[in-house]
Write a structure and sequence with these properties.
The chain is mainly α and about 290 residues long. It is built from 13 helices and no strands.
């Protein structure tokens, strides 16, 4: 029977209503793809796991084995340095690894294989696409900052014999959450912004590495010339460190006020969002 004379039954289904979680499909697919890469699992997962486990062992030794000498105390400085340590183990290195191996290809690969047009041809908006990609980096960075930071705090509460610590340091929970977000959000936006500027993930990785390594080096050069730490605002790590010291009630090692560091990060977030909006909307308009 010719197709033009065939009759078809009407479709009796219902369209899925609009949901604000449409971005989760993108996030889940990207996380699954990252988890399937053996190199990423080895480089990105194992070092942070060892780092987190070591801090858990230190907490246990301090609380349960007083005869063991541990060069740390469980206080605000302990959690501040866990989230972002410069020496002796640069925990910021994990942020760099996650950005390079897990984030620089999030949008760059879509541009390379023209997948962005396919995404935007579906019933999702450019904002859904952006949130889906951003959530990947947020989840990855939270797995080495926010989540283990809170777990270590809870571990210490379970091991202490009285409520003195929680009465005196209950505010550390808020500091851990806020400082983690201060690290996670700008870093995540920076990674996917660099990824959106090129169709080659290697170039995005080079740019991300240049910012993470180059801005601190530039600050050190200026500091040696001027004998002042006021130029710390040009270093992304220094801005994180300044705000972290303020949140945990510590004395920062810089002359710059924390308010200026906050403005720098807000400005960086705004610039990244503006670039991402223009890059993604441009593809949406072209289609």
């Amino acid at each position: 029977m010719p197709i033009h004379v065939q009759s078809y039954r009407h479709w009796g289904g219902q369209l899925k209503p609009y949901t604000s979680m449409r971005w989760w499909v993108i996030t889940k697919a990207e996380l699954k793809f990252i988890a399937q890469r053996k190199l990423v699992r080895f480089i990105v997962a194992i070092p942070p796991a060892i780092y987190i486990l070591a801090h858990g062992v230190f907490i246990y030794a301090i609380d349960r084995l007083p005869q063991v000498r541990v060069p740390w105390q469980i206080d605000a400085r302990f959690f501040n340095q866990f989230l972002l340590r410069v020496e002796p183990i640069p925990s910021g290195l994990f942020i760099g690894l996650l950005g390079v191996f897990g984030g620089v290809g999030l949008i760059a690969n879509d541009l390379k294989y023209n997948a962005l047009q396919i995404y935007l041809s579906k019933p999702i908006s450019w904002l859904d696409y952006l949130i889906g990609k951003l959530a990947v980096m947020v989840i990855l960075l939270a797995s080495v900052t926010l989540i283990p930071g809170l777990l270590l705090f809870i571990e210490h509460l379970l091991f202490v014999e009285d409520l003195t610590f929680i009465r005196e340091n209950y505010w550390l929970i808020g500091s851990i959450i806020l400082y983690s977000l201060i690290i996670i959000i700008p870093s995540s936006l920076l990674v996917i912004t660099l990824s959106s500027l090129t169709s080659n993930a290697r170039y995005a990785a080079i740019g991300f590495g240049a910012i993470l390594i180059g801005t601190p080096l530039l600050y050190q050069i200026i500091r040696q010339i001027t004998h002042s730490s006021k130029a710390a605002l040009i270093s992304i790590w220094a801005n994180y460190d300044i705000l972290g010291a303020q949140l945990f009630g510590l004395r920062p090692g810089y002359d710059s006020h924390w308010f200026w560091s906050l403005l720098v990060l807000i400005g960086m977030i705004g610039l990244c969002l503006w670039i991402l909006h223009r890059r993604i909307k441009a593809v949406q308009i072209v289609k």
